[in-house]
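protien #1 (seq + structre)
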Amino acid sequence: MAPTTSAMTFLFTDIEGSTRLWETEQARMADALARHDALCRREVEAHGGRVVKMIGDGLHAVFADPAAAVASTLGLQRGMAAIGEACGIPFKMRCGLHAGVSQIRDGDYFGGTVNRAARIAGAAHGGQILVSQSVIDLGRDRFAPGIEFVHLGRVRLRDLSTPEDLWQLVSDELQRTFPALRSLDSTPNNLPQQLTSFIGREKEIAEMKSLLGKTRLLTLTGSGGCGKTRLSLQVAAELIDAYADGVWLVELAGLADPDLVPQALATVLGLKEERGVSLMETIVVHLKSRRLLLLLDNAEHLLTACAQLVDTVLRQCRHVALLASSREGLGTAGELTYRVPSLSMPDPRRDAEPDALLQFESVRLFVERARAHHPQFAVNSQNAAALASICSRLDGIPLALELAAARVRALSVDEVNQRLDQRFRLLTGGSRTALPRQQTLRSLIDWSYDLLRDEERALLSRLAVFAGGWTLAAAERVCSDEIMEEGAVLDFLTSLVDKSLVAAEERDGAMRYRLLETVRQYARDRLLERGDGSAWRDRHLAFYLSFGEEAETMLSGPQQQLWLRRVETEYDDLRAALAWSSAPAGDAQRGLQLAGAIWRYWYMRGLFGEGRGWLGALLANVPGGSSRARAKALNAAGTLAWQQADYAAAAAAYTEALAIWRELGDRHGESGTLSNMGNVAHGLGDYPGARARLEESLVIRRELGDRKGVADALNNLAVLAYDKVDYATARAQFEECLAIRREMGDRWNIAVVLTNLGAIADAEGDFAACRKLYEESLSIFRDLGDRWGMPGTLNNLGEMAYALGDYDEASARFAESLAIRREIGDRRGVAGQLNNLGRAKCAKGDFAGARDLHEESVRILCELGERKVFVEALEGLANVAAGSGDPVQAARFWGAAEQLRESLACPLPTKDLVGYEGRVAATRAQLGDDAAFARAWTQGRAMTLEEAQDFALPAREAQRAA
């Protein structure tokens, strides 16, 4: 969001008493409001302004010229009088004008100037126009004749910030006299003036105002620094008209003695003790006949005393309302609690564009406070990502953000972000006039921690081992011991929730708990101080190993979708458990077991690189040996490597795993690894070797009665038969596989087989059956949130569209698939997808674009050593050369591809033969010299694999020559 470069004048209006008018004059009000909207647009645009937006029955407009803004507002008041007379209702508009520099995003304006303009309008009465000093200064000597201004004095607006010099616009056509302005000065109060602006919280303010219409005691709860005090003050300021005898703030933070609570209230009300009468009785007598709002701020350390005072006032003073702020509720009858959330935060993974960031309250707060220390501070492309990260890592806590923003005096935003791992050292230096606990982030949480019982402190520190969130069952298993039994954990956990140190939310019918990151780091430090952190991390690892082993079985069964969500929910903690097991003091053997248990999640979610990283580190930490856990981990590492077309790494992992399975006599493990080794051979183009491994695996699995294993082997053999254009065998094997998958309720693998059957229907030209199979498969993958299966099926839908000549749909499907493959790091899949996109571009006549895509594919394939997809790249480049008018080069590409297909025993699919033969014939005719075409074809066939790669990438050939 960029600031405007010069001062603009902002106009806000609304209709006085509109709620009542809607209730009593609905038909007339609808007619009048339609006329009002038309009048607003007409008058604003006639004076060179722009309507930013209509807000309910009000207007927000902006003008470059303050004199034009004033003239437009005067025209609005004239028009409103005419509308009211025509519709027969009292239709009066209040207007506020203020000028200054603002920030703009997507055509809307934000910042202190805009907020102040709205507050000025809120101070006006119907028919009144209020103008700030800045408008007077900027428009001096340019206002139209007949316009005058009367100074109303320096007024405290309801934003609690600095007062504003206000002027009333007077004219012969306007009412001149009005009641006192609707400001903080018009009603008794002791609300303190704030030196900084109030940011956001529109939703919370609206909800709290509504709740105070339903209850006489509303308690704001929330973590330290979340902004309870500032929010309660703002709500009180906005509701001041509802309380004829004012709003009164009672600050309790400085009190240590509970007996002084009534005295604090009496002091605010100006009451003194009377002989023979208790102070509480004096307070009640004073309040009984008054209509006012009391604010009890920071009550958490005086809960009992505050509850007793509140109970007495509520029972005996029927027109008094109370708004309290506390880390936990007061626990008295009639109380409603409202948990104050963090400020809205960006997601650093998505919201890192400068123009998008300032829609978030946390970012706006950081920016405004940063400018107080560094006036030139601005959000730009260099600091946007770090700023998004800061706001997220600080959980949107206002005090933490303010302390971080103060550091821009000496550090860049990126440097602040880098130091947040040591946030309690970094986030110090708050206002010297603030309460001591508000001057550093650590002292803020110390205040809450010091109020806890010993058991609560112990539980809070133990909960720091959870990285994401946890269930009650997890807390009971991980955090209990001989001193804190499992049954006691719930009571202490509930107490921590009540004290706003633990957040709780219902998810899928169960409660889930979490620590804000700042609290978690604090609790982690306390855990380290206690000296038993390793023991609790070991318990955490043991719990998640048990969870992972249960997930291993469930991810292949009928509850697959449910368990994918469960693993996703627990994934931060699974990562934390793996990280601890990989640390020097951790249990690497258990970590290896955990990684070997959850590898299927990495596979199904396309997290190949991350999974390989964990498995590789843990295998290195537990070298050698012939354990079942090691063989499982090797098998998992090999499968993830195979998926990334890293065939050398896959083969090495499978070879070691096979040796262990055979040493252990584990036929089940042996058959699975043999099947995987067959897939590697297939990827390398070794079809005889692939078939031998896969058939050996199938024999063992049938002997063992391993239905899932049989289905795996059948699927892999069917893919092999498909590549050999043996569709009858492939279909039979896929259908047997599908029957087993359906019997087991394995939806993910059902989707895989449906895709494969769709490919056969596509190859045979049965497009109706093909589309049905693909779309059923895609629906399952999307439902599961699977990032591995989706791109394959999207690609197949693109292939079908291509075959039908719909190149636009084909390109769209290929592009969507490519984006997912890039995201999950599937480099082999990326290369194949680039080829398919290249074919679609070539069909549309974009030969240069197609060449770029095929060459990018070749570069990837050269690095991977992949040959089958390389053949497709050569054929794509042949099509490009033919379309570009170079038949000789096309013949060489086709010759090289033909020879490579023969060496791989991988013929062109039947469905592609007609198109292929037609292109070859047309290109030969284009050259007009059959002998020359044949010579070029023979030259291509004579190329080695390396020479074909050089031919496909001229730059690579030149580099080799150099």
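ok now protien #2
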Amino acid sequence: MRRRLLILLPVAAAAAAMMFWALAQPAPQTMSSLFPAGALLYLEAKDFGALLADWNGSGEKRDWLASSNYEGFSRSELFLKLGDAQTQFATAAGVPPDYALLTSVAGAKSGVAMYDIGKLEFLYVAHLPSARAMNTSLWKLRGTFQTRHAGNADYFVKEDRASHRVAAFAYTGDTLLLATKEELIAGSLRLMAREALPSVASEQWFTDSVQAAAQGPSDLRLVYNMSSLARTYQFRSHWIQSNVPELRQFASGLADLERVRGEIRERRVLLRVMPADATESAESATGQLLAAVPDDAGLYRAWLHPAPGQAAQWIEEKLFPAATASAPRSKLAPTFVETPDAGSEVDLESRIDERPVTEDRDSLKALRDRLAAARIDAMLDVSSTGIDADRVYVRPHSVIVLLAATAWDADAIRTALGSAAEGVWSNSSDPTWRTGTGGVRELEGLGRLAMASDGKWLVVGDSAQLVNAVFARRNRTAVAGAAYAAGWRHARELPNFERMTTLIDFPQLPAGGSGEPPYFSANLASLGRTLKRVDTASIVVHDVGTMLRESVVYKLNP
């Protein structure tokens, strides 16, 4: 027994020593902790090299580079500015920042932070095996750079005097660093040496966003400081959504993206500066409307508690476009032609058999007042396109569904709709409604208008068939609700979109195919063809007061 104890004592002592040694070691540094504080946004990839290889071999890349969308982008001011920056970096570094360089420095776990959008000041950090790092063109040209030291490692920096563009890089351990500002790469090396410096990971906008995320990082994680972004000129001027004022309510945000089983899923959180009222407990109203969306609808959007007047605005714009279309802007004053009588040769367009339309007449006022007085719990917009019987023209159809807190007065709504139609499509003071299938009422006249109501449900559209398809599903079991939800059936709608926009653009097409590609029928249509693998896209938003939680799903065709 004593001999066994003597044998076990050294083993136990060694195990204890290893345990204490492991506890004494500092915790591994996260990728975000290697970036100095002050970034506007931070992007982290689980395996950047694999993502880049997938994109390089994809049909989407091939189709996009050959598309009119890319042709239009290549002529844009943004593209030209990026080209100038690329040339300046190539002059500074001695190597062009092309796809070959990007492939050589694309590591597995990687991160990039943007500090100044206008100056393109960024820091890139990636885990890269030494054999690959030593084989990069940058490392081979390090002798032409100035060597400096920060933290526990050397770094190499070079500046183009004409443009003041900086190229700096370093490699230490298994980590490659690349930056366009010397202070960033020096700060990162000091952080790697565990000096007491603030990092991106220590900033509140970053920590709050990461803590709010429901899960850990996915294939890609983007974290952004919205308060700082909204103050930058480039973001305010070039943000494609043009909704910067609406985004100012958010302090920061995060988006995680992952690819699973024929889908691309994106999870987002947007943190508010000041908390708002949560809506999760009342989101069942949109769930009732979402259950009524036809299976073949091209587009649907559902809102919880739409703002006053929003319902009237959507009905006016969707169903009465002639009443709301704005005149083309002109810097020239209108000309005045004197017309002494309707029979003058300069006034052949005046009708003497019609009641004159007065400027102050508002035929939509009755409808607007009726909707403003109602308390609408949820609103649904459903749209689809279809080819007419002549097989030539494509016609879009829309339906607006309103779910109110109390039952609708169907007769009053029909009267208000008839008054609106009278002011837009006819002079009849007594419009006639005929009863169609499924309880749908259709307005007789030049325009197309249909409606159906049942208690709290009101369905109005420009297609009796689509109104009936939605109305017939009103008693279905509700699905999960949301503060906002939308879906787009890309594969279904793209052919009709191309056909319709080609007919619209045809008279303006330049001879010989030269000049700028038409925006809708060529530019946007080619982008749609590039994304032809996308079958559907959907988004669901939940409002918890302090933040919005969004889930986006892109379903892909095989």
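The radius of gyration is 31 Å.
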